[in-house]
Amino acid sequence: MKIRKIAYLSTLFAFLLPTLVVATVVLSYTYTTSTTGTAPEVYLAQGPNYAAANAMGLFYAKQVGSPGNISSGTKIYFNYTYGANNEALLNVLEIVVSNALSGRTVTITFDTLNLPNGVTMYISGSAGTELSYKVSDGVITILNALNNQAVSTGNPISLSSGTYYIGFLFTSQPGTYTGTIAFSYAIS
């Protein structure tokens, strides 16, 4: 009788135990930002001064897709040629935030900003406002920039829909270099 009871209890526990086990599985994925012929909701594009800077051999970034956009992680070509202490390429690129996102906030982060020594990147402070400059004692100061500061890696920037302009200031190291700009964004 005892053996039957033990066998019964063993069978009962064998059925109950799987229902008592709780497992938590967390899945995490990382997606790279890229384009496949169609521009995403937030993308880099050639700005109004791109054609002139490119014709002078000062700047190059490959454009893909339609509307034309520059993939995150694309190599950017810089050519510093004039030998002055300061040289600015303003409004050569744009950040385009889709009008479909009107009323929403986009937070863009430059995960990689691998620029040549002596080159800093600036973004306009508000949609539709182009970067400009002033010169004092031979020193160029970029105007209309976001927080009046150069962009740095890893700092989230909040943008609304519209177009923001990107420019670069060269302060030293004449020569020809490439850099990489990679970014990610979140929409809320």
Quick one: overall form?
A: globular
Order of strands across the biggest sheet?
A: 2-3-11-5-9
Output the number of helix runs.
2
Can you summarize the main beta sheet? 5 strands, antiparallel
Q: Quick one: how many beta strands?
A: 11
Query: Can you give the mean pLDDT?
Result: 77
Unreliable spans: 5-9, 12-36
Strand content: 35-45%
Compact summary:
This protein is mostly beta strands. The chain is built from 2 helices and 11 strands, in the order H-E-H-E-E-E-E-E-E-E-E-E-E. The protein is 13% helix and 39% strand.
List the helices and strands and how they pair.
Elements: H1 2-20, E1 42-46, H2 50-55, E2 59-61, E3 75-80, E4 87-97, E5 106-114, E6 119-123, E7 132-136, E8 139-143, E9 157-159, E10 162-170, E11 175-187
Antiparallel strand pairs: 1-4, 2-3, 3-11, 4-10, 5-9, 5-11, 6-10, 7-8
Overview of the structural elements:
The chain has 188 residues and is mainly β. The protein has one domain (42-187). It has helices at 2-20, 50-55, and strands at residues 42-46, 59-61, 75-80, 87-97, 106-114, 119-123, 132-136, 139-143, 157-159, 162-170, 175-187. A five-stranded antiparallel sheet has the order 2-3-11-5-9. A hairpin with a 2-residue loop joins strand 7 (132-136) and strand 8. The chain is globular. The chain starts with a helix and ends with a strand. The relative contact order is 0.23.
Key words describing this protein structure:
13% helix, mainly beta, 5-stranded antiparallel sheet, 2 helices, 4-stranded antiparallel sheet
